[in-house]
Design goal:
This protein has 16 helices and 27 strands. It has about 550 residues and is of the alpha/beta class. Strand 14 and strand 15 form a beta hairpin. It starts with 15 loop residues before the first helix and ends in an 11-residue tail after the last helix. The strands form 6 sheets. It has a 9-stranded mixed sheet, sandwiched between helices. A 5-stranded parallel sheet has the order 4-3-5-6-7, sandwiched between helices. Among the domains are: about 160 residues, 3-Layer(aba) Sandwich (Rossmann fold), CATH 3.40.50.12780; about 100 residues, GMP Synthetase, Chain A, domain 3, CATH 3.30.300.30.
């Protein structure tokens, strides 16, 4: 396999416990984690104390090295504390969002995970008790801020954890006396670190198995891609159930001792104030967020984003039109990244070396190639399938019977279609699963989508293939217009005819109010396909689709 990445002299791996202790000694009073919604924070000194305290509480509930600990339904600040406390013991983190996956799916996932302990907020213990036989410990949610303390009701409940320091000197002395594993040797780089569920839109989500090498190397790639230093202040508003948030924001924060600013979810109304008040230098991003900020531009003061040197974009494809519009509107530099749950970061734009419309060039810690149907490396600008390999790939996927289907150890064929130009920049075209084959001609939906997005009255678009009795498949498009625009679908087809080969011009264009997307911003093409089927059998008014 080929790769353009130069050799990298990596810092030696350190346990989370050792990293936190190092930052505690170097910068004890520095803000470590800031909850931008609640306007509370912890310093590295406070973080170290609280992580050790949570680790001691978990240990009293039987958590040891290798124990699988499910963190269920936790908000961002609580989840981070519990996550770090779990790793402090060398245990395995298993994040699980029950409302997102649904009760029945959660029950099946818990059966496969076979946890040693389930930890959840005090108001969520009931439903979970019917899903698993594992012991459940409830904690007092919202104990992140410095003003939080244990209440009388919490002291009366022996099964209750608290994320805040103990309330009395005797409680504190008892916790401090409890021994913890040595910070440097609590676990090894090849020990399992987490079991994380993917965001599959159909069926049971996959449970991906990661060791600490996955996190360490992907964290180093995030630092390299974003040129991060310990002085950075990163804003992350995505769920830490997502592997992307874990390796983009959590790991560099731990490795560098930088400041991590967090929120439960993105807020268009508060985004500007979060950046300004917390002097955010790098913000996470996804295409959906960029769209929200473009659909209704912020009325922000000129200095609102003065501290923000870059905003990432990952999870779903970012069109060149969307990218250019956003940078022109806000003056914020976008760094487009490409990764997956199985491989972590595969490519990324760099601050000083990027090309709009591409995902940059391969990350440092992965072997990257684009191959044809025979497995031969493609020539420059020729499309093929992305294949990756290396030590930072996930270990595998946990199966229902407890076995693991291996991923690492062999080349991973991603089923993503891409091409690499002569300069090494990688341009994504889409998924092999989304290819439209019309009369033997292979059509990549993104090519059509990019053409339609270039129309001044188009905000967003999705192209997909539908059955056709003559050609096998035809292309149809669903379009969201700019606010206040009124577009004739036939005019949009004429626009396509002016820029595309005849066989790529969509058969139909439907103007809709919005596109159905997953919680992570990915277009739900199956939902669009169902909408099309309904239009075939009983033509509806597609201006107001009932997408969820």
């Amino acid at each position: 396999m080929s790769s353009d990445s130069p050799p990298v002299a990596d810092p030696p791996w350190r346990t989370v416990a050792a990293l936190i202790d190092e930052h505690r000694r170097a910068t004890p009073g520095k803000h470590a984690i800031v909850d931008v919604e609640r306007r509370v924070s912890v310093t590295f000194e406070q973080l170290a104390c609280r992580v050790d305290g949570i680790a001691r509480q978990l240990a009293r509930h039987g958590v040891r090295k290798g124990t699988r600990v499910v963190l269920a339904n936790c908000e961002a600040s609580d989840k981070l504390m519990l996550w770090l406390g779990t790793w402090r013991l060398g245990a395995v983190v298993c994040p699980l969002d029950v409302p997102f996956v649904g009760n029945e799916t959660a029950r099946k996932l818990l059966e496969t995970l076979a946890p040693g302990l389930v930890v959840c907020p005090d108001h969520d213990g009931g439903p979970l008790s019917a899903m698993t036989a594992a012991p459940i410990v409830r904690f007092a949610a919202g104990g992140f801020g410095t003003a939080q303390s244990r209440t009388g009701a919490q002291r009366a409940s022996p099964g209750m954890m608290t994320l805040a320091p103990a309330a009395t000197q005797s409680d504190q002395a008892a916790e401090d006396a409890a021994p913890l594993p040595d910070a440097e040797s609590v676990c090894a780089i090849d020990d399992i670190a987490s079991l994380c569920c993917t965001s599959g839109t159909t069926g049971i989500p996959k449970i991906v198995v990661y060791d600490h090498a996955c996190y360490w190397l992907n964290g180093l790639d995030s630092i390299d891609l974003l040129d991060l230093t310990r002085d950075d202040r990163t804003l992350e508003y995505r769920s830490f159930d997502w592997y992307s948030a874990q390796i983009l924001s959590l790991m560099p924060f731990l490795q560098l001792g930088s400041t991590l600013c967090i929120a439960r979810k993105f807020s268009r109304r508060q985004f500007g104030s979060w950046v300004r008040e917390n002097r955010v230098t790098v913000s996470a991003g996804v295409p959906t967020v960029l769209n929200l900020l473009l659909e209704a531009p912020l009325d922000a003061a000129t200095d609102t984003f003065a501290s923000l040197r870059a905003m990432t974009c990952s999870t779903a494809p970012l069109s060149p039109v969307q990218w250019t519009r956003f940078e022109k509107q806000y003056g914020i530099r976008i760094l487009n990244l490409y990764g997956s749950s199985e491989a972590g970061w595969m490519c990324g734009s760099r601050a000083q070396r990027r090309k709009i419309g591409t995902v940059g060039y391969p990350a440092a810690h992965i072997r990257f190639d684009i191959v044809d149907s025979e497995g031969v490396s493609c020539a420059p600008d020729a499309e093929g399938q992305v294949v990756v390999d290396g030590a930072k790939l996930a270990l595998g996927v946990l199966q229902a019977d407890g076995s693991m289907l291996a991923i690492r150890g062999a080349p991973l064929f991603t089923r993503d279609i891409a091409a690499r130009d002569a300069e090494g920049f990688v341009r994504m075209s889409g998924r092999m699963d989304d290819l439209i084959i019309r009369g033997g001609v292979k059509i990549v939906p993104q090519e059509i989508e990019d053409v339609l997005r270039a129309h001044p009255e188009v905000q967003d678009v999705a192209a997909l293939g539908v059955p056709d009795p003559v050609y096998g498949q035809e292309t149809v498009c669903f379009v969201v217009t700019q606010a206040g625009a009124s577009v004739d679908p036939q005019a949009l087809r004429s626009h396509c005819r002016a820029h595309l080969a005849r066989e790529k011009v969509p058969q139909d264009v439907f103007v809709v109010a919005s596109l159905p997307r997953s919680s992570r911003g990915k277009i739900l093409r199956d939902a669009l396909r169902q909408q099309w089927w309904r239009s075939v059998s009983m033509p509806p008014d597609l201006s107001e689709p009932e997408f969820e």
